[in-house]
UniProtKB/TrEMBL annotation:
Protein name in UniProt: Outer-membrane lipoprotein carrier protein
Gene transcribed to yield this protein: lolA
HAMAP family: LolA (MF_00240)
Family: Belongs to the LolA family.
Keywords of this entry: Chaperone, Lipoprotein, Periplasm, Protein transport, Signal, Transport
Function per UniProt: Participates in the translocation of lipoproteins from the inner membrane to the outer membrane. Only forms a complex with a lipoprotein if the residue after the N-terminal Cys is not an aspartate (The Asp acts as a targeting signal to indicate that the lipoprotein should stay in the inner membrane).
Superkingdom, taxonomy of origin: Bacteria
UniProt-annotated location(s): Periplasm
Keyword Secreted attributed: no
Length: 201
């Protein structure tokens, strides 16, 4: 099973010092226009684990880039209207409507509008070590993600834990986080390479 990203992404933030996790999340959404970070991802399913790593970028509202570099190259680009998933090894591109593909996923939560509490029930989960945790439960029962947890340390979103309806558990750790960097517009557009199979969903 290759790791695509039903877990698209997510990341960092600056918030008031020592603020609880929910306050930090709200501060992030209201103050972050762009974001970049490196990530490492582990997906656990039926006793097996797969790891991947790469770089993600975010431009609110609605634009994202999630580029896997290991163990294989895969690129996910959301331009605000269309979500492109390019698997270089398989020479295949999947094209989806972004709104339907993201729904109220973690990517929609972080890349979308400020309506966090419209789509999610937020609950503080307390502190574990140096990390403050919150749980975000999607209000829509048909959401792919059954559980979403976010961990903050030193006013940055440093970890996410996602549980989906297929029984997969995904853990994402972020590093090299940059808030509001200047990001080229070209990073959030995608032109299918010639000779690559295109599948529309």
């Amino acid at each position: 099973m290759k790791i695509i990203a039903s877990t698209l992404l997510c990341l960092a933030l600056a918030a008031p010092a020592h603020a609880a996790a929910i306050a930090q999340l709200k501060q992030f959404v209201s103050s972050t226009k762009t974001l970049s970070a490196s990530f490492s991802q582990t997906v656990s399913s039926k006793g097996k684990q797969e790891t991947a790593s790469g770089v993600m970028e975010l431009q609110r509202p609605g634009k994202l880039r999630w580029a896997y570099s290991k163990p294989f190259e895969q690129l996910i680009v959301g331009d605000g209207n269309t979500l492109w998933i390019y698997d270089k090894e398989l020479a295949q591109i999947t094209k989806r409507k972004q709104a339907g593909a993201l729904g109220s996923s973690p990517a929609a939560l972080l890349a979308g509008s400020n309506a966090i509490e419209r789509d999610y029930l937020l609950r503080e989960m307390g502190k574990q070590g140096d990390v403050e945790w919150l749980a975000a439960s999607p209000k829509k029962a048909d959401n792919t993600f059954e559980s979403i947890k976010m961990g903050f340390s030193n006013n940055q979103l440093v970890e996410m834990e996602l549980g989906d309806s297929f029984g997969n558990q995904t853990r994402i750790r972020f590093s090299d986080i940059k808030k509001n960097p200047a990001l080229p517009a070209a990073n959030f557009s995608f032109t299918p390479p010639k000779g690559v199979d295109l599948v529309s969903e």
